[in-house]
């Protein structure tokens, strides 16, 4: 995917792609809510990943690209990174979010995405050359972590009637999905050079291979799903999965995981707006308080050093 070099400065095009990706991902939680009407969580993830893999395989082959081979050690390493991408960017987080959204609102799941850049910071420090944890980043990480605790523990602190073990596990599942995305971004960043289409298509293909057997063994596929569920899962496949996988791969390649992590400033906001306007979801005060604390931590970790030296 990229050479292991320090993070390049983002261009105007990178910022534009970041905004588009934020809107697409912010709307994905609405798609999950729609598809969960008839499709169970792992089946939901399996269908969206399989359809997206099919679309990107066709696009990859039509544009003259190919899947990586196995002849050299570098090609074998690429397959390992594609496997990591399929597991941590697709199979695991999609399943965890879908299961979590059976109990929590789409707004909560969206706010959890703000956790991703908090985890990218220490991972990049140890794994990506040129990315170092400065004092401001450590301070931002600490503040953001307080926001995560407030987000997950808010029901217990402010509303004992809502807090149940099942809801707590669902909340942890959503935060766990964010952890998966952080790991997946580092796996993508460290992949040897390969075309964006090939990497995205191969990762989705491997994700589908992981999910489909589990879905068939563990869950029942509905015989006559509603139009709303079908529209939801098809939307998830084409936009937040297929298109977004290409966009995130391009952004990581151009500007690195920390820049991509800035999309998570947008995703929670779009998820909250869409959840409140379209799904009429309630917005507990601690949701917004937690989001504000997390975003303050992210802003400190991302921009303080640039402001101080610029």
Structural domain tally: 1
Number of strands: 0
Coarse morphology: globular
Instruction: State the order of secondary-structure elements, H for helix, E for strand.
Output: HHHHHHHHHHHH
Name the average pLDDT: 84
How far is it from the N-terminal to the C-terminal residue, by CA? 30 Å
Give the radius of gyration. Answer: 19 Å
Beta-strand content bin: under 5%
Task: Output the structural class.
Answer: mainly alpha
Described by strand count, sense and barrel closure, the largest sheet is:
none
* Poorly predicted segments: 1-5
Helix content: over 70%
Number of helices: 12
Summary of the model, kept short:
By secondary structure, this protein is an all-alpha fold.
Describe this structure in words.
The chain is an all-alpha fold. It contains twelve helices and no strands. It has one domain (12-309). It has helices at residues 12-35, 41-62, 73-100, 106-112, 116-127, 135-158, 165-189, 196-218, 227-255, 257-260, 263-277, 285-309. It starts with 11 loop residues before the first helix and ends with a helix.
What brief labels describe this structure?
single chain; 310 residues; mainly alpha; 12 helices; globular; disordered N terminus
């Amino acid at each position: 995917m990229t050479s292991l070099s320090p993070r390049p400065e983002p261009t105007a095009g990178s910022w534009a792609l970041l905004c588009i990706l934020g809107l697409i991902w912010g709307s994905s939680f609405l798609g999950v809510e729609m598809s969960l009407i008839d499709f169970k969580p792992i089946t939901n993830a399996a269908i969206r990943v399989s359809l997206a893999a099919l679309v990107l395989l066709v696009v990859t082959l039509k544009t003259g690209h190919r899947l990586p081979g196995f002849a050299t050690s570098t090609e074998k390493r690429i397959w390992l990174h594609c496997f990591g991408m399929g597991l941590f960017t697709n199979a695991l987080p999609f399943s965890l979010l879908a299961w979590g959204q059976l109990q929590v609102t789409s707004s909560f799941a969206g706010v959890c995405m703000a956790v991703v850049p908090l985890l990218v910071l220490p991972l990049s420090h140890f794994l990506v050359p040129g990315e170092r944890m400065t004092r401001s980043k450590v301070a931002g990480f600490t503040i953001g972590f307080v926001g995560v605790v407030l987000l997950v523990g808010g029901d217990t602190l402010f509303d004992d009637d809502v807090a149940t073990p099942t809801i707590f596990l669902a909340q942890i599942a959503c935060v766990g999905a964010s952890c998966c995305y952080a790991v997946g971004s580092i796996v993508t960043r460290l992949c040897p050079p390969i075309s964006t289409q090939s990497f995205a298509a191969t990762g989705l293909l491997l994700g589908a291979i992981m999910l489909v057997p589990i879905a068939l063994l563990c869950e029942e596929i509905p015989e006559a799903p509603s139009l709303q569920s079908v529209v939801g899962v098809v939307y998830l496949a084409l936009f937040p999965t297929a298109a977004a996988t290409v966009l995130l791969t391009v952004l990581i390649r151009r500007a690195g995981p920390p820049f991509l992590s800035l999309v998570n400033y947008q995703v929670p906001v779009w998820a909250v707006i869409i959840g409140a306007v379209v799904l009429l979801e309630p917005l507990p005060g601690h949701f917004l308080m937690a989001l504000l604390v997390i975003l303050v931590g992210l802003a400190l970790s991302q921009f303080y050093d640039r402001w101080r030296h610029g």
